[in-house]
Design a protein that fits this description.
The structure holds two protein chains of two kinds. In chain A, the strands form three sheets. An eight-stranded parallel beta barrel of chain A has the order 1-2-3-4-5-6-7-14, surrounded by six helices. In chain A, strands 8-9-10 form a three-stranded antiparallel sheet, with no helix packed on it. The longest helix of chain A is centred in the C-terminal third of the chain and has 19 residues. Chain A starts with a strand and ends in a 9-residue tail after the last strand. Chain A is α/β, with parallel strands linked by helices. Chain A is globular and about 60 Å long. Chain A folds into two domains: 240 residues, Alpha-Beta Barrel (TIM Barrel), CATH 3.20.20.70; 67 residues, no CATH class. In chain A, helix 1 runs parallel beside helix 10. Chain B is an alpha+beta fold. Chain B has a single domain, classed as SCP2 sterol-binding domain (Nonspecific Lipid-transfer Protein, Chain A). Chain B is 47% helix and 15% strand. Chain B has eight helices and five strands. In chain B, strand 2 and strand 3 form a beta hairpin. In chain B, helix 2 crosses helix 3 and helix 3 packs antiparallel against helix 6. Classes of the chains: A alpha/beta, B alpha+beta. At the A-B interface, helix 1, strand 8 and helix 10 of A face helix 5, strand 5 and helix 6 of B.
Chain lengths: 329, 179
């Protein structure tokens, strides 16, 4: 196996769907503020995590538990419990971002394999060496602001594994440092695990189309038949300099399938698919398609037409290779 | 009735389906949901406080709609004529085949939203919770009629196969194809 395919699961049934569709690893989180997809009705109870790990291991797949929000000062109990529950479930690794959580894991759970979340935004050999030397981190998830060439150079300068996002929702900000939603809602993915918390999102329809509001602020309006995106401020349409446009980033999904061979050449260990908040239909289609794509490259075959196969699943109906090819405006 | 959109039932089927609005669908669905709640209570645990919310589900190609309160063994489903509008915490509107695809997990809710195959209003948090609970429920057609064992498998195969054919026939959005 040259490239490990790391796939999302928001529910136990999505975990089973991912494993059955060919995931080498599945990542998921507990049903609380300790993970960055803390949506109503999503995620795993401790018992469901035990059962999920058992199922994955029985089918030859690994489970990586995301505990990747930043712990609250003086109130770390939820993060400590999540680490203990991940170890009890037999997780193959935990994905962490916060220094205090990393320190607690390294000190009290020395047998847990530690991966550094994209939320930690570690993008230099110095930062990665610090996490590896101090806490024994074995893998780093690459921030989505680097080109393939930059990742290749980074890999030559570090001695831990790297994991890169290959498909799904595209966060245009430096992860772990974006507080945009805090200004509108008082919550952020970094602290409470939600970007645009759904209790603050409202849609309304009139003859001009659909308006998206975040805590009362209108952040976009879609005409009838126009493709829609997620209700996040970074993908909102605003007036600046007399022009209405997607100021930060268009509603668009990452698709770096055409770079799979380049990722392998750059020394990347694992490819990550975003989408723990998505349904089984998405998980099955995307995992199956990317497993075929990875296997084809591995066997020296031709590229699978991922873009065409998954066109109906992407945000805003559009796909981009993001910063990997540095074609952003 | 609205003109025919991609994925909606053809006019003839809509006319044939119209009398279904007069059948006791509400009591039948209420029984089915309560039976399911007894079998899989953890699905309703996922809903938490949102189990008390009311969800108005409007198939855009039918003249009737469903008002559901998914409160475990106290769940209730009412079937009503479209004109009898009733306030609800959440309203979801989409062609019948899309709604059924979301119910059994064949279709992805976010993708249907991006493609504008569904429209939603009201409490987004309640809708997200319901969507995630349904996603984990692994609902099958047999669950709705209470069929188990061999009969259940037969019902599932027949209905799922039929729905797949119907989606292709009506041009309903499927994965890999933007609508």
């Amino acid at each position: 196996m040259s490239l490990e395919l790391v796939c999302p699961a928001g529910t136990p049934s999505a975990l089973r769907a991912a494993v059955e569709a060919g995931a080498h690893s599945v990542y998921c989180g507990f049903r609380d503020e300790t993970n960055a997809r803390n949506f109503p009705g999503l995620n795993f109870s401790p018992d469901e995590m035990i059962e999920g790990v058992r199922f994955a291991h029985a089918h030859g797949a690994k489970v990586l538990v995301a505990i990747n929000t930043f712990a609250k000062a003086g109130s770390m109990e939820a993060w400590k419990a999540a680490l203990a529950n991940a170890e009890k479930a037999g997780a193959d690794a935990v994905i962490l971002a916060d220094l205090a959580v990393l320190d607690h894991a390294a000190t009290h759970h020395p047998n847990l394999r530690l991966h550094l979340s994209v939320q930690a935004a570690a993008a230099t050999p110095e930062a990665i060496a610090f996490y590896a030397d101090t806490f024994g981190v074995k893998r780093v998830v690459m921030p989505r602001v680097l080109s393939v060439e930059e990742i290749a150079k980074l890999n030559a300068a570090i001695n831990v594994e790297t994991e890169a996002f290959v498909f799904g929702g595209l966060c245009p900000m430096t992860e772990g440092r974006c507080s945009l939603s805090s200004y509108a809602t008082g919550k952020s993915p970094n602290l409470t695990g939600v970007c645009s918390p759904p209790e603050h999102v409202a849609y309304s329809e009139d003859r001009n189309g659909t308006a998206t509001r975040l805590n009362g602020f209108t952040i976009d309006r879609f005409g009838a038949g126009e493709q829609a995106g997620y209700p996040t401020l970074c993908k909102g349409r605003f007036v600046a300099g007399g022009k209405t446009s997607y100021l930060f980033e268009d509603p668009v999904s990452l698709n770096a399938a055409s770079l799979i061979a380049a990722f392998a050449k750059a020394g990347i260990t694992a490819l990550k698919i975003e989408g723990r908040q998505r349904g089984k239909g998405y998980v099955t289609e995307v995992v199956r398609t990317f497993r075929a794509a990875v296997d084809a490259i591995d066997a020296g075959g031709t590229e699978v037409e991922v873009g065409r196969l998954l066109a109906g699943l992407v945000e805003g109906g559009r796909q981009t290779s993001g910063a990997y090819k540095k074609t952003w405006r | 009735m609205a003109e025919h959109f991609r994925g909606e039932l053809p006019r003839l089927l809509r006319i044939l389906a119209a009398p279904a609005g007069f059948l006791p669908l509400g009591p039948a669905l209420t029984l089915a949901v309560r039976r399911f709640a007894r079998r899989k209570p953890t699905v309703f645990d996922r809903l938490g406080e949102y189990g008390k919310c009311s969800f108005l589900i409007e198939p855009s190609d039918l003249d009737f709609s469903f008002l559901m309160v998914p409160d475990g063994v106290r769940s209730e489903v009412k079937c009503m004529r479209r004109r009898a509008t009733q306030p609800a915490d959440v309203t979801v509107r989409a062609p019948l085949l899309v709604l059924l695809g979301l119910l059994d997990g064949t279709l992805d809710g976010d993708a249907m939203f991006f493609n504008r195959a569904i429209s939603v209003s009201g409490r987004t948090d309640a809708l997200v919770a319901l969507r995630n609970a349904i996603e984990d429920a692994e609902l099958t057609p047999a669950d709705f009629v209470g069929a188990t064992g061999g009969l259940g498998k037969l019902v599932d195969r027949s209905v799922i196969g039929g729905l797949g054919l119907a989606r292709r026939f009506t041009g309903s959005p499927i994965h890999g194809e933007p609508s």
